[in-house]
Specification:
Layout: H1 9-35, E1 40-45, E2 60-66, H2 70-81, E3 87-90, E4 104-110, H3 119-129, E5 130-141, H4 147-156, H5 160-163, H6 173-179, E6 183-191, E7 203-210
Parallel strand pairs: 1-2, 1-4, 2-3, 4-5
Antiparallel strand pairs: 5-7, 6-7
The structure holds S-adenosylmethionine (SAM).
């Protein structure tokens, strides 16, 4: 079966413009928190414009950054040149990663698991390319734990993905990670709403999930 196509030029233009502002408003600190303890070979899925690249610690020896959207990938290629650690940007989707089994110490997913069409397939694929005991570092917006906002998010998801490059507001990503066989080592929930327009995606999680060692 051919891999899924991801091409959202309008969303890509908007993201290229607004994501740096969100980083200044606090997302940058969340990225630092997510990346701080990484070591060794890392695969980043759906790297976007490469906003994580400049924040990788020197304990990371190499990053393979997978980005399917052509315009975002071009920006990521530019960002890779200035990164403090070696970053290679490649085309590919999370549900068919261009990598061998058990070859990465860690994987990074930021603000991306909301957009991947086949989330269980992607989580299984990330598990495949990570060494046993490897860690998936995630920073994601998720479904609210409160009933009414959660129901509103589910209703909004009829239209939101069409406007936001396939992003869903109501994914219960932590449960999906657990269902995929990872062990969540630590995770915190928090609200982050840098602008009123971001209210539907305010609930966030950040943490580490491990591929079981056996
Ligand atoms: C909101 S952007 C986040 C980009 C980046 N991770 C960041 O933290 O800024 C969502 C990203 O998911 C990517 N994406 C969507 N579907 C994907 C898939 N099936 N596999 C990999 N990446 C995907 C998009 O191309 C886009 O780069």
């Amino acid at each position: 079966m051919p891999a899924e196509q991801v091409c959202h030029p309008r969303f890509a233009r908007i993201y290229q413009r607004f994501a740096p502002q969100m980083d200044k408003a606090g997302a940058g600190e969340h990225r630092d928190e997510m990346l701080a303890d990484l070591t060794g070979r890392v695969i980043e899925v759906g790297a976007g414009t490469g906003l994580n690249f400049g924040r990788y610690p020197s304990t990371v020896t190499e990053v393979l950054a997978v980005e399917p959207e052509p315009s975002l990938r071009r920006s990521a290629e530019k960002a890779a040149k200035d990164a403090p650690v070696p970053v290679t940007v490649v085309d590919g989707v999370a549900s068919a990663l261009p990598a061998e089994d058990a070859t990465f110490d860690a994987a990074v997913a930021s603000l991306v698991l909301c957009s991947i069409r086949d989330l269980p397939g992607a989580l299984a694929e990330i598990c495949r390319v990570m060494k046993p005991g490897g860690e998936l570092c995630f920073y994601e917006h998720v479904r609210s734990e409160r009933a009414v906002p959660g129901a509103l998010q589910r209703a909004l998801d009829v239209a939101w993905p069409h406007m936001a490059g396939g992003c869903h507001t109501s994914r219960d990503t932590a449960s999906e990670i657990t269902r995929a066989g990872y062990e969540i080592e630590h995770m915190r929930r928090f609200s982050f709403r840098p602008s009123i327009f971001m209210a539907p995606v305010a609930p966030h999680i950040i943490g580490v999930a491990r591929r079981p060692a056996k």
